[in-house]
């Protein structure tokens, strides 16, 4: 039977909503809980497949973890209490789990193998293997990819100059440095999300970031103490609604209790630079900063983003492309080559899909150019 469906243009999006918990913080809370002493309680945990891969991997190494919806309890085993898993750890599509666990497991006194799905198995892993090897780690890969075989051993404190702007790589090095025989220094190319540093300090470690925001010193062998962690709403999930509210005329949308860590709020900065209407109401939270964000529709202007702008908006760049498509001029995004090695080649995907919507977008090796006037 044929049915006729009629759509009408919307007059605006109105309302307020909450988004699920932050993915990055959910992964990290589980890991730190497992290597602490005492119980860690995680509220507003994100029970998505990626974070559940971390949860299952930690259980496979002897950690007692119970979950009821978005509340998780982790009974810590201490920094030296994990046990060898009986089989390879299957991490699905979780790049964050894989890279952070590589750093954590490199210093444990047992061997592990990390495996993943087809997509994860094509993503670059030498970026964690090589700097960890300089700390004394014994890690082998197949052509730079999973499976990753980790022969756990004593690591050495070093100074590492990173070569990619990646919070996953930085976090792997920090987790390895906790287990080293001397302090370590990690120098980033650009500041990236600092959830590992903040959480570790809350658990009792000494991880100090210098005033340049990219030199991090980690003291080894701390005693970590389990904590109560409240995970803020995920900025990367809120970003879809903030973008929709900006571009659908007549909209006003409030996103509640969203994480406002400045290393993650690049989309808000970009929106403000484009002339978007963004109001932030900070709320008190003992851990990561969070607050309510209200966006109303606005006429947007083009924006130019370069490498220094990218880390704080790395996962929201597809939405920046949509915003740019409605702007009254040409927007240029460069220095974003990392997008090519995410779950998909996000530069190619953005360009292919947005062209289907009639958007004038040109692909560049490290970004894209969008002419909002021709859309
Ligand atoms: C993440 C860091 C980013 C981000 C990913 C989560 C993290 O990856 O794209 O979704 O939790 O550390 P890179 O470190 O590869 O930039």
List the helices and strands and how they pair.
Blueprint: E1 14-18, H1 23-34, E2 39-43, H2 49-60, E3 64-68, E4 71-75, E5 89-90, H3 95-106, E6 111-115, H4 126-134, E7 138-142, E8 145-151, E9 159-161, H5 167-177, E10 184-187, H6 195-202, E11 207-209, E12 215-218, E13 228-230, H7 235-247, E14 252-259, H8 266-273, E15 277-283, E16 290-296, E17 304-305, H9 317-325, E18 330-333, H10 346-356, E19 361-364, E20 367-371
Parallel strand pairs: 1-14, 2-13, 5-6, 9-10, 17-18
Antiparallel strand pairs: 2-4, 3-4, 6-8, 7-8, 10-12, 11-12, 14-16, 15-16, 18-20, 19-20
Helix pairs in contact: 1-2, 1-3, 1-6, 2-3, 3-5, 4-5, 7-9
Bound molecules: shikimate-3-phosphate.
Characteristic terms for this protein:
375 residues; alpha/beta; UDP-n-acetylglucosamine1-carboxyvinyl-transferase, Chain; four-stranded mixed beta sheet; 10 helices; 20 strands; binds shikimate-3-phosphate
Shape assignment: globular
Helix count? Answer: 10
In the CATH hierarchy, the architecture of the largest domain is Alpha-beta prism
| Strand order in the sheet with the most strands | 1-14-16-15
Order of secondary-structure elements: EHEHEEEHEHEEEHEHEEEHEHEEEHEHEE
**Fraction of residues in helix:** 25-40%
CATH class of the largest domain: Alpha Beta
Domains (count): 2
The strand count comes to 20
What are the distinct ligands in this entry? Answer: shikimate-3-phosphate
Mean pLDDT: 97
Tell me the CATH superfamily of the largest domain. Answer: Enolpyruvate transferase domain
**N-C termini distance:** 36 Å
What ranges have pLDDT less than 50 throughout 5 or more consecutive residues? none
Largest beta-sheet details? 4 strands, mixed
Taking Cα atoms only, what radius of gyration do you get, to the nearest Å? 21 Å
How large is the share of residues in beta strands? 15-25%
